[in-house]
Design brief:
mainly beta, three-stranded antiparallel beta sheet, 245 residues, 12 strands, Immunoglobulin-like
């Protein structure tokens, strides 16, 4: 009776402390997936069972190098005597008193299967392209999509990632503009700025990606954000002066 009460008290204490038995690992039979950011990259991490192999697809596949076409061999019109082969000198065999060490191939095994996916970087454009004038609006835009989607097959599980960008424009004269619009050329563009002084200005665009991922019909937020910076130069000139008499 005392032994049964002791076992019941121990089990109750484990439950209160949040310590689950070894057989209760949810990732043993069903894959556990999480998506987060690290070093401005999207990381998809899945764990199933005790160990899986790590992989990445950031590197581009190597291009196949075509094999050169062999040149046709010239057929001699007469036969030359075969050259006398040089005698082969055998090197003396040195007997070793020890066994050489053989490096064994080590397979790195981790508890997760990771895949890194890079998001695109914006290209900055503005209009007019040639010598914008002071006190005349300059229109800015970037070539990024409004939605970045990626479907990933990882350890037999399908994960859909959806990211949306937001932008912070810095026009080089102290003016800053935050928006979720990509912008467009004149006259439809919503991102424009007017310079009051001539000069060369450094334009910077900071793009922040955030969003969600879907796994087994469950939608969850991506932990963290990915930030990408783009820069450009613009030279603004003074409008010519005309005299009316």
């Amino acid at each position: 009776m005392v032994a049964h009460m002791f076992i019941a008290i121990v089990c109750l204490a484990l439950v209160l402390l949040g310590i689950a038995p070894a057989g209760a690992d949810q990732c043993k039979e069903k894959a556990c997936v999480t998506v987060y950011t690290d070093n401005n990259q999207i990381i998809i991490e899945a764990r199933k069972g005790d160990a899986t192999v790590k992989k990445t697809i950031t590197q581009r596949p190597k291009k196949a190098v075509p094999k050169p076409t062999p040149k046709p061999k010239a057929v001699p019109l007469f036969f030359l005597p075969k050259p006398t082969p040089k005698p082969v000198v055998k090197k003396p065999v040195v007997k070793r008193s020890y066994k050489p060490r053989v490096k064994k191939a080590v397979t790195q095994v981790n508890l997760s299967d990771r895949l890194t996916k890079m998001v695109p970087t914006a290209g900055v454009a503005y209009q007019p392209v040639f010598e914008p004038l002071v006190n005349v609006p300059v229109y800015f835009w970037c070539d990024l999509p409004t939605l970045f989607q990626s479907r990933v097959d990882i350890i037999g599980e399908v994960v859909d990632v959806a990211l949306r960008p937001s932008f912070v424009w810095s026009f080089g004269d102290g003016s800053i503009f935050a928006t979720t619009d990509n912008g467009a050329p004149y006259p439809a563009g919503a991102i424009h700025h007017t310079y009051t002084q001539p000069g060369t200005y450094h334009i910077s665009l900071l793009t922040t990606w955030n969003g969600s991922f879907t796994h087994n019909a469950a939608v969850r937020a991506v932990s963290g954000t990915v930030k990408k910076a783009s820069i450009a130069l613009i030279t603004v000139v003074q409008a010519p002066t005309t005299f009316k008499g």
